[in-house]
Design a protein that fits this description.
The protein is α/β, with parallel strands linked by helices and 478 residues long. The chain contains 19 helices and 12 strands.
């Protein structure tokens, strides 16, 4: 090898090594800067907020005293390096309980942003202060915390910097506005326009789906977002189907907001795009055979290749595009059946995908079939999904508009407010119906009471009359 070529190769290697070292040192410097700033800036900011809000904090303290007799409630938590810390909260259920935790930040017990409080005993997690705000709690507000707390904490530590902490604070403020902070009761189903939406977690839904692939009875699942529920007002067949199938799963921030409008809490946003990798991972362990049907020609196949590379051993036993007419149904059904698939994922858009499954489920050998919308496009790389930080503030729909403005603007700009208006009207109608039932029950009760009283009076009068007649006859005899 000529000396010039050798020198050039060595130079390239040296440059790559230097770049790697620079990136590594930048990462370490960023983390150290974040820790130093967090050590001094957090208490200073907390003190400034406390002084600024002192009238409000004083009022909140007095409210706690008035209702409970004590101002603060102490909650024992695990602090940095495993030390025990008393986290302060204002007593009583009045809003603003956690504002008392500013005192803990001033004292240096906790930080504004950090790993979730009391979220495990991992040594890396315990090496930093727990945070009043955490990635896990942020995602939980918009119902996309599908991973466990420890995984979210480790993700936070890996990406930790002053800049990332600022981003988490901003995203937390937005998600608090959209997702709310108050928790309501969590019913098994949430009623949207007489359609029961299954209120479950992502992990439970995945387990239930895969468990039924080994069952004897065929099952159909569907996802619904605000657009799907808007369609049911124009498509009666689709609405009846959603009312009858085994489970309808909640998809999107709109369903979460709609649930809160009905004073109930949604457990998780169980959308198909987040579910797919979890489903594939579990299906790999259980050796479940999957068939992908839908999207443009070649997209489902590409999606299959990507997922099989990501999860070695994943059994995707066939794919077919979704652009076909009814005359090809027998051929496609035959392909699915001969593949030996146990789980069929159909991505042809709602309501077509769900109605197609319902029409052909009795002809299919698959035990479970479910409509999954456009997820094949995302996992094939045909379309780019919204970054995680956009999903964390419940704004994935805005990303979809930017990607496909002509197709998506009406669905979201018009459809989302229309859906929320319909939820409001439906809730109001339900309240009026409940009031009517209560009034009807009260009237029934009054009527029944009067009826009983009237019958008692009749019986009393009859007994009195008969007794009088008997006495008169007795006197006549005497």
């Amino acid at each position: 090898m000529p000396h010039s070529t050798l020198a050039l190769t060595l130079n390239h290697r040296l440059i790559r090594q230097l770049r790697t070292q620079i990136k590594k040192h930048k990462k370490i410097l960023s983390m150290q800067t974040g820790q130093i700033l967090g050590k001094y800036i957090d208490p200073v900011i907390a003190l400034a907020i406390t002084i600024l809000l002192s009238p409000l904090l004083t009022a909140r303290y007095l409210i706690a005293i008035y209702y409970t007799g004590t101002g603060f409630e102490k909650i024992s938590i695990t602090g940095r390096n495993g030390t025990s810390v008393d986290l302060l909260e204002f007593n009583s259920d009045f809003p603003g309980k956690s504002m008392a935790s500013l005192i803990n930040i001033i004292k240096g017990d906790i930080a504004f942003v950090g790993p979730a409080i009391n979220s495990g005993h991992n040594s890396d997690v315990l090496s930093v202060k727990p945070g009043l705000i955490s990635i896990y709690r942020l995602r939980k507000k918009v119902r996309i915390a599908h991973e466990d707390e420890e995984s979210a904490n480790l993700e936070y530590l890996y990406k930790k910097s002053f800049k990332s902490d600022i981003g988490i604070v901003v995203r937390n403020a937005i998600s608090s506005f959209l997702g709310g902070s108050k928790e309501y009761h969590t019913p098994y189903h949430i009623d949207f326009f007489n359609i029961p939406v299954w209120n479950t977690s992502m992990n439970d839904a995945v387990k239930w789906i895969l468990m039924n692939t080994k069952g004897k009875v065929k099952k159909q699942f569907a996802f619904v977002n605000p657009d799907c529920l808007n369609i049911t007002f124009k498509n009666e067949a689709y609405k009846k189907l959603l009312q009858q199938i085994d489970h309808v799963l909640p998809d999107g921030i709109g369903i979460h907001i709609g649930s809160r409008m009905q004073k109930v809490s949604l457990k998780e946003n169980v959308n198909g795009t987040d579910m797919f990798p979890i489903l594939c991972e579990e299906a790999t362990k259980r050796k479940t055979k999957i068939y992908l049907l839908g999207s443009e020609p070649g997209i489902a196949h590409k999606c299959s290749e990507v997922m099989k590379q990501r999860y070695p051993g994943l059994l995707i036993c066939g794919t077919h595009h979704g652009h076909f007419d009814e005359s090809y149904n027998p051929e496609i059904i035959n392909k699915i059946n001969t593949s030996g698939a146990e789980l069929l994922l159909v991505g042809m858009g709602a309501p077509r995908q769900d109605l197609w499954i319902a029409d052909n489920l009795d002809k299919l050998n698959t035990k479970v079939a479910m409509g999954v919308g456009g997820l094949f496009d995302f996992y094939s790389g045909n379309k780019i999904r919204a970054p995680r930080w956009i999903r964390e503030i419940g704004m994935e729909w805005s990303w979809r508009i930017l990607q496909e403005p002509e197709r998506m603007w009406k669905r979201y700009i018009v459809g989302n407010p229309l859906f929320l208006y319909r939820v409001f009207r439906y809730g109001k109608h339900q309240d009026e119906s409940n009031d009517a039932v209560i009034k009807s029950n009260e009237l029934d009760h009054r009527y029944n009471t009067n009826y009983v009283k009237m019958n008692i009076q009749k019986v009393t009068w009859s007994i009195t009359k008969n007794v009088q007649h008997l006495i008169k006859r007795s006197l006549d005899i005497v």
